[in-house]
Amino acid sequence: MSERSGGVGSADNVEQYASAEGLRVAEASRWRRAARGLGTFMRTKQLGAFGLIVVVLWSVIAVGTVGDGGGWLGLGRYDSRAVFEIASVSYADDKLANALDGLDADISTAAQRELVSDPQIFGQVAIDNAVAGEMVDYGLELIADGILLDTLIDAEQIEIEDGQIKDVDALLATGTDNPLITASLLDPSGKHWFGTDRAGHDLFSRVTEGARLSLYIGFFATLIGVGIGTVVGLLAGSLGGAVDLMVNRVMDAIQAFPPIVFLLLIASVTDPSALWVTLSLAVLGVAPTNRIVRGSVIQIREMPYVEAARTIGATAGRIMGFHILPNIFAPLIVIFSITIGAFILAEAALSFLGLGTLDVSWGKMIADGRQFIVYSPWTSLWAGLALTSLVFGFNVLGDALRDVLDPRLRGSR
Amino acid sequence: MQKYLINRFLLVIPTLWLVISILFVALNLLPGDYVTIKLSNLEASGATTQPAEIVGELEVERTLHRVVGGNTLESVALQYGITVEELLANNPSLDSSAELRPGSTLIVIDGQLLSAISRRERMALPENTADGVALLIERNPQIEFGSVAGEPYAPSGETLTLRTSTTINELAAVNRVTPEDYLNVNIRGTPSNEDGLLAADTLLLPGVTIIAPTREITEASIKNQLGIDKPLGIQYVEFLWDTIRLQFRPSFQTNEASMDIFLRALPRTLHLNGYALIVAVLVALPVGILSAMRQDQAVDYLLRGFAILALAAPPFWIATMLIFVVSPGGIFDGGVWSIPLTEQDARSIFSSVSGFFALYTIPAVAGGIAAGASLMRITRSELLEVLRQDYVRTAWSKGLRERAVIRRHALRNAMVPVLSVFGLLIAALVGGNIILEVLFAIPGIGLLLLQRIYQADVPVIQTMFFFIALFVIVLNIIIDVSYALIDPRIRYN
Fold first, then answer.
1. Do the domain assignments include residue B407?
2. Hey, is the C-beta of B316 within 8 angstroms of any chain A C-beta?
3. I need a surface site. Which of A1, A378, B89, B340 has the fewest CB within 10 A?
């Protein structure tokens, strides 16, 4: 195709010309053409290219962190649902009253309070054996040795004899990597790159798991919604008449509900699950897709080549599938990328309200983090940044694709 | 023009019918849930179990709050609708700078709110909380009620008379069964009816033991009263007819008229959305015009970059981070702002201007930014389109100043297409602000809607959904018609 020069028009001519001149015809395979198109896109639409990179990056992170050992990327080093337990001030205070009710421990200093309050390593053992004071002393020893925060002690190894902890030195020597004291609201560190949330979950692994949910729901909801919208739009546009009128009324009725309100309507009657969120989002995707596809179909229907196909006796189905559908692919790709971004935002909003899925989700993380934001903004901050960057990526990618593929749609959103 | 108008209005009829049908179909799945919730509530209060004693009095206790991690004086005060000063006054051991120790207990109110008593004592007091409060005040003239955040409370240590006597009629109304249901189970020989003289209007004194109807009877009775035991077809026709006449069923929860609940919440939502819309337009128009005038200059890139980011960032996250930035304990230690208590004065711009700005500014900015960003992008692209037109070039070549060209020639024409997206914009704004209402505890339609969804209060949910949809439909008509008035080409398409 790249050899189109001189007066040569058809492929046969090109080959004849090339062999006569001793040239090799460049076999522009489908893949190479796609790669070249992508290269041009990256060069001319830098912002769109940036968006594409962001989206691909998130997809790789989302897919690459599935499974044990952090997936094949090795990034998800922790289970997003496992609670990480290391001594921390805020959590300790929380447990203080519960753990120490009625025990005769001296808890005048902050360090003592911090230690004695953990139910698993000190509190529970202490309560069981009524040796809270002993526990405090033991904990202070640990801190003096600089051991507590780094090396963690297995609570099961603590043995109590006559109300005294047995063999403290031996216990210290057996410190294992078994995390025991809840690491609630930790700041980012080398261990927990994004810090931890209130329950002591590792935020980085929760952000990556949230990415997975966002992308899955966004992708499948868009796929279903745009798919149905395309079919409906094709039918409405090609058949016209009563079908068209009816479809438009239904679309009007759905669009009479603002998107979030429609999602609330569905969420109020269904169980919270990823499936229902996906399906209700998909319904929202039908109306805009239908509008654009229908418009394109009405335009294309009058084109000479469709007229020609009809003249030689092509059936309505064949015209729709082979002549109209390939020509509305460009707007479909554009709708697809713009809709995914909007759906990811909508899913987050629903989860934020507590009506979305029960899985780890960015919207829910923002909501969780909000309650203790003055103590630690990290939970909300990371989830929000991740959400914003992913939606940003889809938005600018969609904008750039629209400019390239379908300039008519410019400004439609 | 007339033909266009008639057509436009005729098209609304099937749309409205479909909206009502969607509401019916979707929410018809819910009443079952409501019945379950109601039954378990009644069961918890002893209404559908076996013999229960009629309670007449209540020893008022203090209202306590157990501190959990993350609680601040402000957040506890906000939760109970009292001021920090009142909280400190009730807890002399506390000083305003101290951090609350998790696990400790605060005295929030030195007594109990009458509304809380009314909500809890469902067996003794009417289902409507306001009626319950009024009745409590009427029955306890000897007690001097205090007041917290405009709500009366009973001081602790007092003995509150919930009721002096009751009748089968009253019990039946509270428990959503008929008096006959009660009489059928309290037959001759049961504790309340040993002599067989019990009637629907016999006075029953506190201390009398009465047997409640079984769960099955109660369930059937509730369904009958809610009208959900009829065939679906009849229910559908009734619902359609009621909705058309705007006669909505009363709330399942409080028996209040759904319309009243809606109208009570509406002003706050209008305040928030109006403010947010003003923010959006104030940001979007100048910025969009500037961006178009300085196309591909540094200013343009900066503003467009900001708009793209603002479109991607969810308003509820922006609001959350704004709270962090301005509230005490956030970035600035003292804080410059904290969420005001919404129940304090009306927070309407007509009653308190400063109160209005204190409450609505942050949510309106957060909600307005995203809407403003999309408006700005459209303004910019439409203006750029117009600036390329011949008549604008003519205006330039006449030697007109930039201001005159933009304002008189370019902007007027660019605004016409912008108008067409205004409807979608406002619809999105209304939807998005539901979340902001929840976030900032503004008791508008959004917050109320969410609360009622949790309670499965179908009539109220239906009313609110219906009016939101109606609003969007009417808005679209107004925009379509004004669009057709401005641009005659539209009518013929």
1. yes
2. yes
3. A1
Q: What is the CATH number of the domain that holds B103?
A: 3.10.350.10
**Domain of residue B298, CATH code:** 1.10.3720.10
* H helical segments located in A256-377: 259-269, 274-301, 304-311, 316-318, 329-352, 362-370
Q: Between B198 and A194, whose confidence is greater? A: A194
Give me the domains of chain A, ranges plus CATH numbers: 86-180 (no CATH), 203-409 (1.10.3720.10)
pTM for the structure as a whole: 0.73
**C-alpha–C-alpha distance, residues B445 and B271, integer Å:** 11
Instruction: Looking at the structure, tell me whether residues B295 and B336 fall in a common domain.
Output: yes
Q: Residue type at A342? A: A
Residue B241 counted as domain residue: no
Phi, psi of B294 (to 5 degrees): -105, 45
Percentage of chain B beyond pLDDT 70 is 84
Q: Is B193:B202 a contact under the CB 8 Å cutoff? A: no
Is any Cβ of chain B less than 8 angstroms from the Cβ of A56?
no
- Give residue B191's domain range: 165-213
What is the band of A171 on the pLDDT scale with cuts at 50, 70, 90? Answer: very low
> By CA distance, what is A89's nearest residue in B?
B69
**In this structure, is the dihedral angle defined by the CA atoms of residues A18, A21, A22 and A26, taken in order, positive or negative?**
negative
Q: Bigger pLDDT: B404 or B208? A: B404
B102, B432, B468 member nearest A93 (Cβ): B102
- Which tokens sit at B126? 């009417």
- In this prediction the ipTM stands at 0.74
Domain count, chain B: 3
Q: Within this chain, do residues B131 and B188 fall inside the same structural domain, yes or no?
A: no
**Is there a domain that residue B389 lies in?**
yes
Average pLDDT of the residues of chain A: 73
pLDDT of residue A164: 47
Spatial distance between the Cα atoms of A378 and A172, rounded to a whole number of angstroms = 33
pLDDT at A69: 59
- Are both B133 and B172 inside the same structural domain? no
> Sorting pLDDT into bands at 50, 70 and 90, what band is B33?
low
Place of tokens 């203006």: B383
Residue B131 counted as domain residue: yes
Q: Would you call A258 and B327 a contact, using CB atoms and an 8 Å cutoff?
A: no
- Element (DSSP H or E) covering residue B123: none
